[in-house]
Specification:
Blueprint lengths: L2 H11 L3 H8 L15 H12 L5 H10 L4 E5 L10 E6 L3 E6 L9
Antiparallel strand pairs: 1-3, 2-3
């Protein structure tokens, strides 16, 4: 592996996982690239509150309900970040993927 390969690997470890998901997955994200995220400034503040350690698990669960999230990335260890209804499905080096245990709530009847 040459110098440019090493630099690419180092740069890749600094990329926000949310941007990778937004770019490569066939799904919607709450906060992606600023040009592609409607209400970007508001979303940034919501996500900051979500990831603040002092935010209650109850508020986080309510937020995930409001945005109809199917899964969420949490800092490892993620236990204690959500109060119920979610399960850890994968652990990475410094974050975990948690999936909703029940179906996503629908918009209407």
């Amino acid at each position: 592996m040459g110098p440019s390969s090493t630099a690419s690997v180092a740069a890749a470890t600094l990329v926000d996982p949310g941007l990778i998901v937004a770019g490569l997955a066939p799904c919607l994200v709450v906060l992606g690239h600023r040009v592609l995220t409607p209400g970007f400034a508001s979303r940034v503040e919501e996500v900051r509150r979500f990831y603040t350690r002092e935010t209650s698990p109850l508020w986080r669960r309510g937020y995930l309900e409001a945005v109809r999230a199917r899964f969420v990335l949490l800092p490892a260890p993620g236990a204690g970040w959500l109060d119920r209804g979610w399960r850890r499905v994968r652990t990475f080096s410094n974050f975990e993927r948690w999936d909703r245990m029940e179906p996503v709530p629908s918009d209407g009847p």
